Amino acid sequence: MTDCYKPRDECGLSSAIKDAATAKMPLVVRGAGSKSAMGRPLGGYAMSLTTERMRGVSLYEPTELVIGALPGTPVSEIDRMLAKHNQMLPFEPMDHRVLFGTSAEPTIGGIVAGNVSGPRRIAVGACRDSLIGVRLVTGRGDVVKSGGRVMKNVTGLDLVKLNCGAWGTLGVLSEVIFKVLPKPARSLSVGLGGMNDTTAIAALTAALGSSFAVSAAAHIPASIGSDSTTIVRLEGSDGSVAYGARELAKLWRSFGRAELIEGDESANLWLRVRDAHWLAQPMDRSIWRLSLAPSKAPHVLADIRQKLGVRYFFDWGGGLVWLAVVDADDAGASVVREAMANTGGHATLVRASSEMRHRIDVFEPLPPAVLKLTQEIKKCFDPDRVLNFGRMYAGI
Amino acid sequence: MSKIRFTEPNREILARRDSIINDLTRLVDPAGLITSADECRAYETDALTAYRKMPLAVVLPKTTEEVSAVLKYCHDTGVKVVPRGAGTSLAGGAIPSEDAVVLGLSKMNRVLAVNYDDRFIRVEAGVTNLSVTAVVAENGFFYGPDPSSQLACTIGGNIANNSGGAHCLKYGVTTNNLLGVRMVLIDGSIIDLGGDYLDSAGLDLLGLVVGSEGQLGIVTEATLRILKSAEGARPVLFGFPSCEGAGKAVADVIAAGIIPVAIEYMDKAAIEICEAFAKAGYPLDVEALLIVEVEGSDAEMDATLADITAIARANGATTVRESRSAIETAAIWKGRKSAFGATGRVADYLCMDGTVPTGKLSYVLAEISKIVQRHGLRVANVFHAGDGNIHPLILYNANDPSQQSKAEAAGDDILRLCVEVGGCLTGEHGVGIEKRDLMGCQFDDADLAQQIRVRAAFDPRWLLNTDKVFPLDFRCQG
């Protein structure tokens, strides 16, 4: 067990990082650790730092649709507080405990560090789109703020987005502020059965190209369950959802007979999509997450399936592919990355053994000019390389 | 006049002007190189017309490769570059300096790809905002951000300033609608960030580039998310006998869980100016006007508007007028979107762009009125109430130098107030030169130092759009 800094406030966080920087001692930075097995492994670092003691909602103005919290605040605590005012975090963050078999509750800082979103991402944007302000401590120990509590702000460089999805390699968040949304009055799913990948993506594309308030769109192929499910979620006022469901059924007539799913059944289905539930077991399978243009997804999948045994499903209307790889000595990296090469999209190895994540690029390799910029940015935030050094890319 | 400082031009560069121009002729099509004083004058300012500087030369490249060649040359020879879209910046973001080459994107205005299945459009950065929607409208799609200057302003400029518009309450600002860019760094290297998919790989450099006011590189192509238009849209005018009532109505609508597509606010002065110009049928017997727009099917709009109307009446609304035709809708929006232009016909004005927490709107409006009176001037308020992005137009006479100083001082006071109540200096117009020296109100030294380090990671020689955004005395400390 490594020693661990557990600062209680921003000041303590800053002095811990300053200590580490002075000693040139790299730190493993984490929240509750629900995603510690993601990214390149950070073995061999003597010290870790957790923000889990920096907890609490720092700001909540329901009529302004804004909430702020300290990084160690459990997401569930924020959800509960928002629910009291019938509001929600728009981006529906995934809970990685399902995939990683971890137990500690995900913290809001961890969600921001990983830019973690869920099925509603296609309608309302990612975590980074709802995040409007941060405070953070850089690798120099400096406390820096960017953005704020208002939702339109172009004052100075956007270090908010830069740090969202940086996996704690640039700074350690000390406060995060989001814009939030009212919960939809009604949520309803419309599904089709018996479709192959190509027709399923075409049906989802038709739905997403409509004006019926589609807030999520997924396809779970037959290989996952007994029959395939192609499903979209409509959210909004009572009337608009009912109207949308009727119109969508008409729009989908050429694909088949649409079925309505509501209540817990619908909610549970989207939780499973959000958390990649179907791929969690068995735990020794490597899991990839591919982001690409939806129209390219069926072809890419066909290509991969010719060479690899995989279990998979599609979210984001086909723009997000989850893939569990069966028995491959490079976790399928060469096949997956080759299939993705001409799409412009990118692939992330979300779950794999530590040995595999050491050997294989976990995040999409960057072109030289972008890598150089990334290195320069790392250097200017964290010159002594103390924050999660190497978690995203070697040397970053 | 001339409160805003400019750095002294580099004499060595000025002395080399002829040889620099000679070198540039080899890098761009001669038709895209402007050097005569008469023609350069069109580029000496932007929409912050009180300030003017003649550029060393203007280049208008036609390709990313030409942009790359010009930037590499300027980098290697230490020449400053000022990027320019349509020159509609209200903050002086495109104002040149005598020792800088203006690089304008007006000739890069092609639409490169439209893909309805994957819901994106790829365009060159000189394409205007409105023409993006015009291209996809025939298929019932649109592009979300809609700044008032959308007829003229370019996508490249929108990216530089993270432009919003009236409808961003629902559809977000530029950064929420941009999937990817091709951009040229100051050393001439060409990079792609993001693409036709969601969430770019690696650090979110795309998010960093948006709103960076042309200081990190020059975007030459952009991939934008397009959306299917709602079945219908209907604006409603609500007139209030008091500003407080209008402010309270906005807060109550949002608290009720209703997010209209737009909630626009105008005070009495703005209503009079805009009505005289656009004949939109705005009520003239009220102190404040809200334009609330909802979208959806007819039944959905009827239901939502009934709820909003009840809230407005509970807050004292005396006029409620729904648009009943496309012509009425167009007139209502024409009045709002031409607010700046219409104001320009009756007086010179400075347009502020702070954002404040929406719960502080009534307080801020009352304080603005006091501030402007204290400086002996008048103000018209027209702004995006749903997101707290305010645009006080401080009216003055530009021919009276003392009035310009007073207007600038009043503007500074208003922006300090925005920061004091928890807001920011600029919501969508950018810092430019106009708010540069106020950055210290919002950020402390550590904040600014870190921003400057990030800027230097892209442009270590500090050649891109210098003199903008960061206080002049501050950069050396980075």
Automatic annotation (TrEMBL), chain A:
A Pfam family of this chain: FAD_binding_4
Domain FAD-binding PCMH-type residue range list: 1-183
First-tier enzyme category under EC: oxidoreductase
EC assignment: 1.1.99.14
Record InterPro entries: FAD-bd_PCMH, FAD-bd_PCMH-like_sf, FAD-bd_PCMH_sub2, FAD-linked_Oxase-like_C, Oxid_FAD_bind_N
Residues spanning the signal sequence: none
Keywords: FAD, Flavoprotein, Oxidoreductase
Cross-referenced PANTHER family: D-LACTATE DEHYDROGENASE, GLYCOLATE OXIDASE SUBUNIT GLCE
Protein name in the entry: Glycolate oxidase subunit GlcE
